[in-house]
Sequence to fold (459 residues):
Amino acid sequence: MSQKLWSGRFEKNTDNLAHEFNKSLDFDFKLYKYDIAGSIAHCTMLSECKIIEKAESDKIIAELKAIEKDIDSGKLTKNDAEDIHMFIEGELIKRIGETGKKLHTARSRNDQVATDFRMYIKADINCIKELLKALIDKLIVISEENLNTIMCGYTHLQKAQPTTLAHHLTAYCEMFLRDYERFSDCFKRVNILPLGICALAGTTYPINRKRVAELLGFDGVTNNSIDGVSDRDFVAEFLFCCSMVSMHLSRFCEEIILWSTDEFKFIKIDDAFSTGSSIMPQKRNPDIAELIRGKTGRIYGNLFNILTVLKSLPLAYNKDMQEDKISVFDSEETIINSLLVFTKMLSSITFNKEVLKNSAYSGFTNATEVADYLVKKGVPFRSAHEITGKLVLYAEKSNKKLEELTLADYKKHSDIFKEDIFGAIDIINAVNNRKLEGGPSESSVKKSIENIKIKLKKQ
Ligand code: ARG
Fold:
Protein backbone atom coordinates (compact mmCIF):
# COMPACT_ATOMS: atom_id res chain seq x y z
CA MET A 1 0.00 0.00 0.00
CA SER A 2 1.39 3.43 -0.93
CA GLN A 3 1.87 6.00 1.80
CA LYS A 4 -1.22 8.04 2.66
CA LEU A 5 -1.06 11.81 2.05
CA TRP A 6 -2.46 12.24 5.58
CA SER A 7 -0.13 9.78 7.34
CA GLY A 8 1.93 12.29 9.40
CA ARG A 9 0.37 11.64 12.80
CA PHE A 10 0.04 7.88 12.34
CA GLU A 11 2.36 5.30 13.79
CA LYS A 12 0.93 2.39 11.85
CA ASN A 13 -0.25 1.70 8.32
CA THR A 14 -3.97 1.21 7.71
CA ASP A 15 -5.03 -2.41 7.92
CA ASN A 16 -5.41 -3.83 4.40
CA LEU A 17 -9.00 -4.84 4.92
CA ALA A 18 -9.84 -1.46 6.45
CA HIS A 19 -8.16 0.30 3.51
CA GLU A 20 -10.15 -1.73 0.99
CA PHE A 21 -13.35 -1.03 2.89
CA ASN A 22 -12.64 2.68 3.22
CA LYS A 23 -11.57 3.37 -0.32
CA SER A 24 -13.88 4.79 -2.96
CA LEU A 25 -11.58 5.02 -5.97
CA ASP A 26 -13.25 2.07 -7.66
CA PHE A 27 -16.41 4.08 -8.12
CA ASP A 28 -15.43 7.75 -7.70
CA PHE A 29 -12.80 7.47 -10.44
CA LYS A 30 -15.70 8.61 -12.64
CA LEU A 31 -15.29 12.08 -11.14
CA TYR A 32 -11.75 12.61 -12.41
CA LYS A 33 -12.57 15.28 -15.01
CA TYR A 34 -14.48 17.33 -12.45
CA ASP A 35 -11.82 16.84 -9.81
CA ILE A 36 -9.17 18.12 -12.21
CA ALA A 37 -11.33 21.03 -13.40
CA GLY A 38 -11.97 21.98 -9.75
CA SER A 39 -8.24 21.81 -8.97
CA ILE A 40 -7.33 23.94 -11.97
CA ALA A 41 -9.84 26.64 -10.97
CA HIS A 42 -8.68 26.50 -7.34
CA CYS A 43 -5.04 26.77 -8.35
CA THR A 44 -5.75 29.68 -10.73
CA MET A 45 -7.43 31.51 -7.87
CA LEU A 46 -4.59 30.73 -5.42
CA SER A 47 -2.12 32.39 -7.75
CA GLU A 48 -4.41 35.34 -8.58
CA CYS A 49 -4.77 35.93 -4.82
CA LYS A 50 -0.98 35.65 -4.42
CA ILE A 51 -1.25 32.65 -2.13
CA ILE A 52 1.05 30.69 -4.44
CA GLU A 53 3.40 31.92 -7.17
CA LYS A 54 2.13 32.23 -10.74
CA ALA A 55 4.96 29.99 -11.96
CA GLU A 56 3.94 27.32 -9.44
CA SER A 57 0.32 27.57 -10.49
CA ASP A 58 1.28 27.27 -14.17
CA LYS A 59 3.33 24.18 -13.44
CA ILE A 60 0.53 22.55 -11.41
CA ILE A 61 -2.11 23.34 -14.03
CA ALA A 62 0.01 22.05 -16.91
CA GLU A 63 0.60 18.79 -15.05
CA LEU A 64 -3.08 18.42 -14.08
CA LYS A 65 -3.93 18.72 -17.78
CA ALA A 66 -1.31 16.10 -18.62
CA ILE A 67 -2.79 13.78 -15.96
CA GLU A 68 -6.24 14.23 -17.46
CA LYS A 69 -4.93 13.37 -20.91
CA ASP A 70 -3.22 10.26 -19.56
CA ILE A 71 -6.44 9.09 -17.89
CA ASP A 72 -8.42 9.83 -21.07
CA SER A 73 -6.04 7.74 -23.14
CA GLY A 74 -5.93 4.90 -20.62
CA LYS A 75 -2.23 5.40 -19.91
CA LEU A 76 -2.93 6.28 -16.30
CA THR A 77 -5.23 3.91 -14.44
CA LYS A 78 -6.52 3.37 -10.90
CA ASN A 79 -4.08 2.47 -8.16
CA ASP A 80 -4.58 1.84 -4.45
CA ALA A 81 -5.26 5.51 -3.59
CA GLU A 82 -8.11 6.06 -1.17
CA ASP A 83 -10.24 8.15 -3.49
CA ILE A 84 -10.16 10.21 -6.67
CA HIS A 85 -8.92 13.30 -4.82
CA MET A 86 -5.95 11.48 -3.31
CA PHE A 87 -5.31 9.76 -6.62
CA ILE A 88 -5.01 13.00 -8.62
CA GLU A 89 -3.08 14.86 -5.92
CA GLY A 90 -0.79 11.89 -5.33
CA GLU A 91 -0.06 11.59 -9.04
CA LEU A 92 0.63 15.33 -9.26
CA ILE A 93 3.12 15.17 -6.38
CA LYS A 94 4.73 12.09 -7.90
CA ARG A 95 5.25 14.01 -11.15
CA ILE A 96 6.25 17.51 -10.01
CA GLY A 97 7.28 17.01 -6.38
CA GLU A 98 7.25 19.92 -3.88
CA THR A 99 5.25 22.30 -6.11
CA GLY A 100 2.47 19.72 -6.35
CA LYS A 101 2.21 19.74 -2.58
CA LYS A 102 0.95 23.33 -2.72
CA LEU A 103 -2.30 22.51 -4.53
CA HIS A 104 -4.17 21.51 -1.38
CA THR A 105 -3.64 24.93 0.24
CA ALA A 106 -6.96 26.40 1.43
CA ARG A 107 -8.87 23.31 0.47
CA SER A 108 -10.13 20.07 2.03
CA ARG A 109 -11.45 16.91 0.49
CA ASN A 110 -14.77 17.81 2.12
CA ASP A 111 -15.37 20.87 -0.05
CA GLN A 112 -13.58 19.18 -2.95
CA VAL A 113 -15.86 16.15 -3.10
CA ALA A 114 -19.00 18.28 -2.74
CA THR A 115 -17.77 20.46 -5.63
CA ASP A 116 -16.87 17.52 -7.89
CA PHE A 117 -20.19 15.87 -7.24
CA ARG A 118 -22.17 19.01 -7.93
CA MET A 119 -20.38 19.41 -11.26
CA TYR A 120 -21.07 15.77 -12.10
CA ILE A 121 -24.77 16.09 -11.29
CA LYS A 122 -25.04 19.32 -13.28
CA ALA A 123 -23.84 17.45 -16.38
CA ASP A 124 -26.28 14.62 -15.62
CA ILE A 125 -29.18 17.04 -15.36
CA ASN A 126 -28.35 18.59 -18.71
CA CYS A 127 -28.17 15.18 -20.32
CA ILE A 128 -31.44 13.93 -18.80
CA LYS A 129 -33.18 17.17 -19.80
CA GLU A 130 -32.10 16.63 -23.41
CA LEU A 131 -33.52 13.09 -23.35
CA LEU A 132 -36.78 14.28 -21.80
CA LYS A 133 -37.04 16.90 -24.51
CA ALA A 134 -36.49 14.29 -27.22
CA LEU A 135 -39.25 12.15 -25.69
CA ILE A 136 -41.67 15.08 -25.47
CA ASP A 137 -40.86 16.03 -29.08
CA LYS A 138 -41.62 12.48 -30.22
CA LEU A 139 -44.88 12.41 -28.28
CA ILE A 140 -45.88 15.71 -29.85
CA VAL A 141 -45.24 14.34 -33.34
CA ILE A 142 -47.42 11.27 -32.67
CA SER A 143 -50.09 13.43 -31.05
CA GLU A 144 -50.21 15.85 -33.97
CA GLU A 145 -50.81 12.88 -36.28
CA ASN A 146 -53.64 11.65 -34.06
CA LEU A 147 -55.65 14.71 -33.13
CA ASN A 148 -58.77 12.98 -34.45
CA THR A 149 -57.97 9.40 -33.51
CA ILE A 150 -60.88 8.61 -31.23
CA MET A 151 -60.30 6.26 -28.33
CA CYS A 152 -61.88 5.42 -25.04
CA GLY A 153 -60.67 7.18 -21.92
CA TYR A 154 -60.70 5.12 -18.72
CA THR A 155 -61.09 5.58 -15.01
CA HIS A 156 -60.57 2.58 -12.71
CA LEU A 157 -59.57 0.88 -15.97
CA GLN A 158 -63.29 0.87 -16.80
CA LYS A 159 -64.58 2.63 -19.88
CA ALA A 160 -65.36 6.23 -19.02
CA GLN A 161 -65.64 8.86 -21.76
CA PRO A 162 -64.47 9.22 -25.35
CA THR A 163 -61.26 11.11 -26.00
CA THR A 164 -58.48 11.03 -28.59
CA LEU A 165 -55.10 9.38 -28.76
CA ALA A 166 -53.54 12.85 -28.98
CA HIS A 167 -55.28 13.89 -25.75
CA HIS A 168 -54.11 10.74 -23.99
CA LEU A 169 -50.51 11.03 -25.19
CA THR A 170 -50.22 14.72 -24.43
CA ALA A 171 -51.15 13.87 -20.84
CA TYR A 172 -47.77 12.11 -20.74
CA CYS A 173 -46.16 15.17 -22.35
CA GLU A 174 -47.37 17.18 -19.37
CA MET A 175 -45.77 14.73 -16.93
CA PHE A 176 -42.45 14.74 -18.74
CA LEU A 177 -42.59 18.51 -19.06
CA ARG A 178 -43.00 18.78 -15.28
CA ASP A 179 -40.02 16.44 -14.92
CA TYR A 180 -38.05 18.67 -17.26
CA GLU A 181 -38.96 21.74 -15.23
CA ARG A 182 -38.24 19.91 -11.97
CA PHE A 183 -34.70 19.15 -13.16
CA SER A 184 -34.22 22.78 -14.21
CA ASP A 185 -35.27 23.86 -10.76
CA CYS A 186 -33.06 21.27 -9.08
CA PHE A 187 -30.15 22.55 -11.20
CA LYS A 188 -30.41 25.97 -9.54
CA ARG A 189 -29.71 24.48 -6.12
CA VAL A 190 -26.96 22.19 -7.40
CA ASN A 191 -25.27 25.12 -9.11
CA ILE A 192 -23.80 26.64 -5.91
CA LEU A 193 -20.10 26.21 -5.18
CA PRO A 194 -18.82 24.77 -1.89
CA LEU A 195 -15.08 25.00 -2.76
CA GLY A 196 -13.08 27.21 -0.41
CA ILE A 197 -15.05 26.33 2.71
CA CYS A 198 -12.40 23.66 3.36
CA ALA A 199 -13.06 21.11 6.12
CA LEU A 200 -15.97 23.01 7.71
CA ALA A 201 -14.76 26.40 8.97
CA GLY A 202 -13.22 27.90 5.88
CA THR A 203 -9.73 29.35 5.89
CA THR A 204 -7.70 32.38 6.91
CA TYR A 205 -6.04 32.69 3.49
CA PRO A 206 -7.34 35.62 1.42
CA ILE A 207 -9.07 33.37 -1.11
CA ASN A 208 -11.64 34.50 -3.68
CA ARG A 209 -14.46 31.97 -3.74
CA LYS A 210 -16.55 33.95 -6.21
CA ARG A 211 -13.71 33.82 -8.71
CA VAL A 212 -13.60 30.02 -8.47
CA ALA A 213 -17.38 29.92 -8.95
CA GLU A 214 -17.01 32.05 -12.04
CA LEU A 215 -14.22 29.87 -13.42
CA LEU A 216 -16.25 26.68 -12.89
CA GLY A 217 -19.58 28.10 -14.11
CA PHE A 218 -21.38 28.10 -10.76
CA ASP A 219 -24.06 30.70 -10.02
CA GLY A 220 -22.75 31.56 -6.57
CA VAL A 221 -21.04 30.23 -3.46
CA THR A 222 -22.48 28.36 -0.46
CA ASN A 223 -23.58 30.67 2.30
CA ASN A 224 -22.53 28.72 5.38
CA SER A 225 -19.33 26.71 5.48
CA ILE A 226 -20.70 24.04 7.83
CA ASP A 227 -23.78 23.53 5.68
CA GLY A 228 -21.68 23.57 2.51
CA VAL A 229 -19.80 20.40 3.45
CA SER A 230 -22.73 18.65 5.17
CA ASP A 231 -25.33 19.30 2.51
CA ARG A 232 -26.35 16.46 0.25
CA ASP A 233 -29.89 17.76 -0.31
CA PHE A 234 -28.93 18.25 -3.93
CA VAL A 235 -28.23 14.52 -4.21
CA ALA A 236 -31.59 13.57 -2.69
CA GLU A 237 -33.33 16.12 -4.88
CA PHE A 238 -31.66 14.81 -8.02
CA LEU A 239 -32.60 11.24 -7.08
CA PHE A 240 -36.16 12.35 -6.43
CA CYS A 241 -36.32 13.96 -9.87
CA CYS A 242 -35.08 10.66 -11.36
CA SER A 243 -37.72 8.79 -9.34
CA MET A 244 -40.51 10.93 -10.75
CA VAL A 245 -39.32 10.34 -14.33
CA SER A 246 -39.11 6.65 -13.60
CA MET A 247 -42.61 6.59 -12.12
CA HIS A 248 -43.99 8.38 -15.18
CA LEU A 249 -42.19 6.00 -17.53
CA SER A 250 -43.51 3.09 -15.51
CA ARG A 251 -47.13 4.26 -15.81
CA PHE A 252 -46.67 4.68 -19.54
CA CYS A 253 -45.05 1.25 -19.84
CA GLU A 254 -47.93 -0.30 -17.94
CA GLU A 255 -50.34 1.09 -20.54
CA ILE A 256 -48.11 -0.03 -23.39
CA ILE A 257 -48.04 -3.53 -21.94
CA LEU A 258 -51.80 -3.55 -21.47
CA TRP A 259 -52.53 -2.03 -24.87
CA SER A 260 -50.38 -4.63 -26.62
CA THR A 261 -52.34 -7.55 -25.16
CA ASP A 262 -54.66 -9.64 -27.31
CA GLU A 263 -57.51 -8.35 -25.13
CA PHE A 264 -56.84 -4.69 -25.98
CA LYS A 265 -54.99 -4.81 -29.32
CA PHE A 266 -54.65 -1.00 -29.27
CA ILE A 267 -51.01 -1.12 -30.36
CA LYS A 268 -48.31 -3.31 -31.80
CA ILE A 269 -44.80 -2.99 -30.46
CA ASP A 270 -42.32 -3.59 -33.28
CA ASP A 271 -40.45 -6.91 -33.40
CA ALA A 272 -37.25 -4.99 -32.75
CA PHE A 273 -38.56 -4.11 -29.29
CA SER A 274 -40.31 -7.40 -28.49
CA THR A 275 -38.90 -10.67 -27.27
CA GLY A 276 -39.79 -14.32 -27.68
CA SER A 277 -40.30 -17.22 -25.32
CA SER A 278 -37.92 -20.15 -24.99
CA ILE A 279 -40.86 -22.58 -24.86
CA MET A 280 -43.96 -20.94 -26.38
CA PRO A 281 -43.30 -20.33 -30.06
CA GLN A 282 -46.19 -17.92 -30.56
CA LYS A 283 -45.09 -15.40 -27.92
CA ARG A 284 -44.15 -11.74 -28.41
CA ASN A 285 -43.39 -10.27 -25.03
CA PRO A 286 -43.09 -6.57 -24.14
CA ASP A 287 -39.87 -7.12 -22.13
CA ILE A 288 -38.48 -3.65 -22.73
CA ALA A 289 -41.55 -1.93 -21.31
CA GLU A 290 -41.63 -4.39 -18.41
CA LEU A 291 -37.97 -3.77 -17.61
CA ILE A 292 -38.36 0.00 -17.63
CA ARG A 293 -41.34 -0.46 -15.29
CA GLY A 294 -39.26 -2.78 -13.11
CA LYS A 295 -36.26 -0.48 -12.90
CA THR A 296 -38.40 1.99 -10.99
CA GLY A 297 -37.71 -0.20 -7.95
CA ARG A 298 -33.96 0.49 -8.05
CA ILE A 299 -34.44 4.16 -8.73
CA TYR A 300 -36.75 4.54 -5.74
CA GLY A 301 -34.29 2.40 -3.75
CA ASN A 302 -31.47 4.82 -4.54
CA LEU A 303 -33.55 7.76 -3.32
CA PHE A 304 -34.36 5.90 -0.15
CA ASN A 305 -30.70 5.02 0.25
CA ILE A 306 -29.53 8.66 0.38
CA LEU A 307 -32.41 9.73 2.60
CA THR A 308 -31.52 6.96 5.04
CA VAL A 309 -27.80 7.74 4.93
CA LEU A 310 -28.50 11.39 5.71
CA LYS A 311 -31.02 10.71 8.46
CA SER A 312 -29.46 11.52 11.87
CA LEU A 313 -26.07 12.50 10.42
CA PRO A 314 -24.47 15.08 12.68
CA LEU A 315 -22.82 18.15 11.14
CA ALA A 316 -20.53 18.50 9.31
CA TYR A 317 -18.82 15.96 7.00
CA ASN A 318 -19.08 12.27 7.89
CA LYS A 319 -17.69 9.41 5.88
CA ASP A 320 -21.21 7.99 5.53
CA MET A 321 -21.59 10.57 2.78
CA GLN A 322 -19.22 8.66 0.54
CA GLU A 323 -22.18 6.31 0.02
CA ASP A 324 -23.99 9.02 -1.96
CA LYS A 325 -22.18 8.30 -5.19
CA ILE A 326 -23.18 4.76 -6.08
CA SER A 327 -26.87 5.72 -5.83
CA VAL A 328 -26.40 8.62 -8.20
CA PHE A 329 -24.28 6.65 -10.67
CA ASP A 330 -26.85 3.86 -10.72
CA SER A 331 -29.94 6.09 -11.05
CA GLU A 332 -28.29 8.30 -13.65
CA GLU A 333 -27.34 5.34 -15.83
CA THR A 334 -30.68 3.62 -15.35
CA ILE A 335 -32.74 6.70 -16.15
CA ILE A 336 -30.62 7.65 -19.17
CA ASN A 337 -30.85 4.13 -20.62
CA SER A 338 -34.56 3.89 -19.85
CA LEU A 339 -35.29 7.20 -21.58
CA LEU A 340 -33.18 6.28 -24.60
CA VAL A 341 -34.76 2.87 -25.13
CA PHE A 342 -38.27 4.06 -24.27
CA THR A 343 -38.21 6.83 -26.88
CA LYS A 344 -36.91 4.41 -29.50
CA MET A 345 -39.53 1.80 -28.60
CA LEU A 346 -42.27 4.44 -28.71
CA SER A 347 -41.24 5.37 -32.25
CA SER A 348 -41.63 1.71 -33.22
CA ILE A 349 -45.20 1.37 -31.99
CA THR A 350 -48.06 1.18 -34.48
CA PHE A 351 -51.45 2.33 -33.25
CA ASN A 352 -54.44 0.32 -34.34
CA LYS A 353 -56.76 3.25 -35.04
CA GLU A 354 -59.79 1.12 -35.83
CA VAL A 355 -59.60 -0.76 -32.53
CA LEU A 356 -58.91 2.46 -30.64
CA LYS A 357 -61.97 4.04 -32.22
CA ASN A 358 -64.20 1.02 -31.52
CA SER A 359 -63.17 1.12 -27.88
CA ALA A 360 -65.01 4.41 -27.53
CA TYR A 361 -68.15 3.01 -29.15
CA SER A 362 -68.96 0.45 -26.48
CA GLY A 363 -69.38 0.57 -22.73
CA PHE A 364 -71.80 3.53 -22.76
CA THR A 365 -68.98 6.08 -22.94
CA ASN A 366 -71.54 8.69 -24.06
CA ALA A 367 -73.77 8.32 -20.99
CA THR A 368 -72.50 11.62 -19.56
CA GLU A 369 -73.66 13.26 -22.82
CA VAL A 370 -77.22 12.04 -22.13
CA ALA A 371 -77.18 13.48 -18.63
CA ASP A 372 -75.70 16.78 -19.88
CA TYR A 373 -78.39 16.90 -22.61
CA LEU A 374 -81.08 16.78 -19.92
CA VAL A 375 -79.28 19.38 -17.81
CA LYS A 376 -79.15 21.74 -20.79
CA LYS A 377 -82.96 21.33 -21.03
CA GLY A 378 -83.40 22.37 -17.41
CA VAL A 379 -83.18 19.09 -15.45
CA PRO A 380 -80.98 19.33 -12.31
CA PHE A 381 -77.80 17.31 -12.80
CA ARG A 382 -78.46 14.78 -10.02
CA SER A 383 -81.90 13.95 -11.50
CA ALA A 384 -80.43 13.79 -15.00
CA HIS A 385 -77.81 11.35 -13.67
CA GLU A 386 -80.56 9.14 -12.21
CA ILE A 387 -82.63 9.13 -15.41
CA THR A 388 -79.55 8.34 -17.50
CA GLY A 389 -78.51 5.56 -15.14
CA LYS A 390 -81.91 3.93 -15.65
CA LEU A 391 -81.56 4.38 -19.39
CA VAL A 392 -78.13 2.70 -19.36
CA LEU A 393 -79.57 -0.22 -17.41
CA TYR A 394 -82.41 -0.48 -19.92
CA ALA A 395 -79.98 -0.42 -22.86
CA GLU A 396 -77.73 -2.98 -21.20
CA LYS A 397 -80.65 -5.32 -20.65
CA SER A 398 -81.79 -4.84 -24.25
CA ASN A 399 -78.22 -5.48 -25.38
CA LYS A 400 -78.08 -2.14 -27.19
CA LYS A 401 -75.86 0.91 -27.27
CA LEU A 402 -77.34 4.27 -26.25
CA GLU A 403 -77.27 5.38 -29.89
CA GLU A 404 -79.17 2.24 -30.90
CA LEU A 405 -82.19 2.98 -28.70
CA THR A 406 -85.24 4.58 -30.33
CA LEU A 407 -86.63 7.96 -29.39
CA ALA A 408 -89.58 6.05 -27.89
CA ASP A 409 -87.12 4.21 -25.62
CA TYR A 410 -85.73 7.56 -24.51
CA LYS A 411 -89.16 9.05 -23.97
CA LYS A 412 -90.05 6.14 -21.71
CA HIS A 413 -87.45 7.54 -19.34
CA SER A 414 -88.15 11.24 -19.79
CA ASP A 415 -90.48 13.32 -21.90
CA ILE A 416 -87.78 15.90 -22.40
CA PHE A 417 -85.88 13.81 -24.94
CA LYS A 418 -86.29 14.97 -28.54
CA GLU A 419 -84.76 13.83 -31.84
CA ASP A 420 -81.68 16.03 -31.18
CA ILE A 421 -80.55 13.58 -28.48
CA PHE A 422 -78.88 11.50 -31.20
CA GLY A 423 -76.62 14.36 -32.23
CA ALA A 424 -75.81 15.06 -28.60
CA ILE A 425 -74.61 11.52 -27.92
CA ASP A 426 -72.54 11.19 -31.07
CA ILE A 427 -69.06 10.13 -29.97
CA ILE A 428 -67.21 12.52 -32.28
CA ASN A 429 -69.40 15.40 -31.11
CA ALA A 430 -68.77 14.36 -27.51
CA VAL A 431 -65.05 14.86 -28.11
CA ASN A 432 -65.16 17.95 -30.27
CA ASN A 433 -67.69 19.83 -28.16
CA ARG A 434 -65.26 19.68 -25.25
CA LYS A 435 -63.42 22.82 -26.22
CA LEU A 436 -62.34 23.76 -22.70
CA GLU A 437 -58.65 24.42 -21.93
CA GLY A 438 -56.97 21.05 -21.56
CA GLY A 439 -59.89 19.21 -23.14
CA PRO A 440 -59.89 16.53 -25.87
CA SER A 441 -61.22 18.54 -28.85
CA GLU A 442 -58.84 19.04 -31.72
CA SER A 443 -58.59 22.78 -31.04
CA SER A 444 -57.98 22.24 -27.31
CA VAL A 445 -55.24 19.65 -27.82
CA LYS A 446 -53.57 21.87 -30.45
CA LYS A 447 -53.54 24.70 -27.89
CA SER A 448 -52.10 22.39 -25.21
CA ILE A 449 -49.35 21.33 -27.57
CA GLU A 450 -48.57 24.99 -28.29
CA ASN A 451 -48.31 25.63 -24.54
CA ILE A 452 -45.93 22.70 -24.11
CA LYS A 453 -43.73 23.96 -26.94
CA ILE A 454 -43.62 27.45 -25.41
CA LYS A 455 -42.71 26.10 -21.96
CA LEU A 456 -39.98 23.89 -23.41
CA LYS A 457 -38.45 26.85 -25.22
CA LYS A 458 -38.51 28.99 -22.07
CA GLN A 459 -36.43 26.56 -20.03
N1 ARG B 1 -14.08 9.90 -0.65
C1 ARG B 1 -14.70 10.85 0.22
C2 ARG B 1 -16.19 10.96 -0.10
O1 ARG B 1 -16.58 10.51 -1.12
C3 ARG B 1 -14.07 12.17 0.01
C4 ARG B 1 -14.09 13.07 1.20
C5 ARG B 1 -13.25 12.51 2.27
N2 ARG B 1 -13.11 13.40 3.37
C6 ARG B 1 -12.64 13.00 4.57
N3 ARG B 1 -12.58 13.89 5.48
N4 ARG B 1 -12.30 11.77 4.79
O2 ARG B 1 -16.97 11.47 0.66
Residues 31 and 57 are 22 Å apart (CA to CA). The beta strands are 150-155, 158-164, 192-193, 220-221, 267-268, 350-351. The first strand starts at residue 150 and ends at 155.
